[in-house]
Amino acid sequence: MSSRSAAWRWGIVGVIILGTVINYLARNSLAVLAPQLQHLLHFGAKEYSYVVGAFQLAYTVMQPVCGRVIDFLGVRAGFALFAVLWSVACLFHAGVNGWQGLAAARGFLGSAEATAIPAGIKVVGEQFKGAERSAAVGWFNVGTSLGAMLAPPLTVFISLRYGWQAPFVVISVLGFAWAVLWYALYRSPETLKTVSKTGFGFDVLATKRFWAIAIPRFLAEPAWQTFNFWIPLYLANERHWELKQIALFAWAPFLAADLGGLTGGYISPLIIKLFKVDLIRARILGNLLGAFLMIAPGCVTLVGNPYLAIGLLCIGGFAHQIVSITINTLSVDLFPTDRIATTNGWVGAAGWTGGLLFSLLIGQVVDKTGFGPLFALLAVFDLIGAALLFVMLRGERPIAEDLP
Question: pTM score, two decimals?
Fold first, then answer.
């Protein structure tokens, strides 16, 4: 490819990063406003759990559906369409007057935002090849943690000046603008195959390759859900930190996760260069490295110093993103371009199912067992996933598709 086309392709990755940041601003803004909304809209923790669950369930169910629509419509029109839909859903949040309306808006948001990762992965499959793909995935994945980091200060800043509805309005406007930008800029290669017009990609589920990446994703996702939803509670309940201390340090694992995403993107090319192994083996070895590093957060409750505990959680955020990047990129390596979004959607659904089930487990047992056994399980899960990846992908080769 020419240097100009390379610059364009990496520019498109930058546009995806921006879209992913807006996506995560929309989904994370509610958590920041939750204490205020509980008072204003008169609901408690039980009702709030239903609101959160509406998003999680919709996101889980809709990932393969969104992936299929992206493959059907094409990533240019499909990604823009879903960006408009999640912006509408975000706007709906500003008009609710009770937890039931908030849950409905949240379910709508989860249904539309489920397209973000499948669509981004499909763009990588269309525009990049070989070891370069994981680097592109690593970069656009930065938007997930960056959005999570920006949501608290941005949401608080806007809400204090203009009211609690204003952040949802501002973020929805950003989403609409991004949809227009995406549709104006993106073009798929003209030589790509057209996806089959029927079915929802259930044939993908019949392949060993799918289960080789879906099961490790099922085992890996509980770590990310735990970091997103339970670290503040762990710091408050077991480390006895006040809100100010939590605010000062709880963001650190997400910064480490950004660094892990970038490392996960470049580690496969490095392994190929150093050890002269093939592409799939390099992905597996990178995943194994991340899995071994996940032992660190598994030991977090064994250390007495709370700041050392934060350090171990940072290693966990770093390690999880290495695992996540290698698994997501394998869906590009192992499936044809016209099935990438569908495949990644099903893989994502498997992951979010694992995350949801583990969150429910935490809710049931943490008061009795504490967080120690649960954090230890996260390390065990990723090691099992890495072993399964090695066994199930032995002898597999990437899909042989040359980009124009």
Answer: 0.85
